[in-house]
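Feature request disguised as a bug: please show the residue count (427) next to Branched-chain amino acid ABC transporter substrate-binding protein in the output. Example input:
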Amino acid sequence: MRVSAIGCTALLLLAVAACGGRDSGGETATGGGTAAAGQCAGQQTTGTTDTSIKLGGIYPLSGPASAYGDIPTGIKAYFDYVNAEQGGIDGRKVEFVVRDDGYSPPKAVEEARRLVEQEQVFALFQTLGTPSTTAVWDYTNQRKVPQVFVATGASQWGSNTEHPWTIGWQPDYVSEARVYAQYLKEERPDAKVAALYQNDDFGKDLLGGFKKAIEGTGIQVVAEESYEVADPTVDAQMGNLAGSGADVFLNITTPKFGALALAADAKNTKWNPLHIVNNVAASRTVLEPVGFENVQGVMSATYYKDPNDPTWDDDAEMKLYKQKMQQYAAGKDPNIPYHAFGWAAASSFHKAMDAVACPTREGLRDSVRNLNNVEVPMLLPGITMKTGPDDGFPIESMQLMEFKGERWELFGEVIDTRAEFGPPTTE
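Example output, currently without the count:
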C-alpha cells in the first residue's frame, strides 16, 4: 500500500473527512453543517462523485512530438493499480480520459473544451507542450478548472500570477539551463556554445535562461539556429552551427528533432563538441535510433529514476513500478523512461489529492500550491515537491547525467536551483 502524502496535518485530515455532504453529481459542495464542511461550501465538485474522479489529459499521440505518447501509458498504469489495489484516491476510482492534439495548439484548445464541457472532467491533469498549454490556459482559468502538473517546463507556469489554476510539475527550463551553465562554469569556463532551439516559447525559455545564467562569465553563445516543428530536417542548421567553432553544442529540442540533431552531430566527424541535450529529448528511446555508439558522452540532466539504470534494481518504487506496468500495461516496455515519467506524475497527483482540504476543484488548486517538501518515490533521492505563495515551481532540483554504453549514468550531486540561484527568470 502506498503511504499518504507527507505533511498532511490532523486538522487537514479532519477537514477532508468533514467535507462530505456533496451532491454526487453536482457542481458545488453543499456543506454538512460543521465548520470544516462550511469551508467547502460552494466549491466545485464537477467530475467527482463519492466513488469516482474523472481527469483529462492532452498529449501529442500523433504528429512531430508523438514520442511523448508513452507518458499517458505510465499514468494510466498507476491509476489502474491504485484503483484496483487501493480503492482509488481517498475512495474515489480515477478515470483518466486522454485526447490527442497532434502537438497543435488549436487542436489542444478544441480537446480542452471537449474534456471540460462534454466529458466534464474534474481537472486537466497534464497538457503536454508549451505551445499547447499556452493556448489552453486562458480557457481553463476563465472556467476555473485546475490545469495541474502540466507536462512542460516553461517558467511561466510558476511565475505568472494571473493564471492560478495552472501549475507545472517538472523542473522549469530556466532552472534546467542553470544546471548546464553551472557545469560549464566549473568545467569549461571559456566555453564557446552553439545552440539549436525550437522556435517557440519552449526553446526561447531555455535558451534565454542559459544566456542569463552565463552573464559575467567567460562562456559565450557564439552561434544559434532555430527550427520549426513542421521542418523535415535540421541539417542546414546543424551545418551552420558546426562552422561556428563552438566546442559545446546545446541541443534544445523535442524528441524528433533531438534525434535528428544527434544524428547530424554524429555524421560530422570534423566537429566534436560536448553535446548537451535538454531533458525532454534525452529519453533512451530518442538516442537508440541514432545508435548508442554515436551518442557516447552526450550530457543531460534529470530528476526522476531511469528504469534502465541498475542503480535502482533494488529500489522499492522501481520494483513496484515494473511489476504494475507488467500487470496493468501488458505488452508495454517498462524500461521506456516516458512510462516512468508518467508514473511519477500520477503519483505526484495522488500526493496532492491526499493533501486537499476539500475534495473540490478549489481544494486541488490550493493543494498544488502548498506542497511542503512532498516526497514522490519515483523522483531521485533528495528531490521533493515544494511550492508556496511565492513559489509556483514544484520541482526545481536536477542531477547531471552522461550517456555511457547503453544507458545514462548520473554524476555529481543533486543541484537545488532554488537554493543556488533563486526564483527562475529570463529577464
